[in-house]
Structures are given as C-alpha cells and as structure tokens.
Amino acid sequence: MTLPPRVTDRAFARLAEIADLTGDAKPLRVGVLGGGCSGFQYDIRLDDPASDDLVLEKNGAKVVVDSVSLPFLQNAVIDFTEELIGARFVVENPNATASCGCGTSFSI
C-alpha cells in the first residue's frame, strides 16, 4: 500500500522554530532531483508552495512535495535530526535500494 510521505512532530516543531526566528513561515520543500552519487538526490529547502504541491501541515507549519517527486517519496518519513556533526532535515525513504554515506543521494 502506498501512502504519502509522513512528517514527524520534531520536523514540524523545527519548522515552527525557524518561522519564529526568521519571521517568515515558508514551507519546507522536499523534492527529488536526478544526480548525486547514487542517481537521485533530495532537494530540501524553504520555498513557496506551487498549485500542484501536496501540502502536509500541522499547527501552521507546512511541508510541500511536488507532484513529480511524490512517487519517489511514497511511505517516506521526513524528520529533523540533531547530531554532533550538525542538525538537518532528513528523509527516511523505504523506496531507496541504496544510498550514499551522507544520506542525500539514493537509488531506486
């Protein structure tokens, strides 16, 4: 069964913090582009929504996924992680058959 991506409470909370700090509540765009060392790479950035985007929202914080990237992100989990090497939004993608060490590039 295919489901749209899911966003964790931690990721939504971090988006709310970013909006409070910057005064700008732009959604987080999660997309997939060709390239990277494994064939595809994630494009994660703050961006305005487009009319055909899937919008995932909680308490005013939004994550958007474009219609082309959506099939690659079915059943994925979008999260925010803080580690010694830094803090970032990450995608846990069950569709990926391989990925690079940094986690930004994958293949299907």
Automatic annotation (TrEMBL):
One Pfam family this sequence matches: Fe-S_biosyn
GO biological process, one term: iron-sulfur cluster assembly
Domain of life: Bacteria
Domain Core span(s) in chain numbering: 7-103
Record-linked SUPFAM superfamilies: HesB-like domain
Molecular function per GO: 2 iron, 2 sulfur cluster binding; 4 iron, 4 sulfur cluster binding; iron ion binding
Official protein name in the record: Iron-sulfur cluster assembly accessory protein
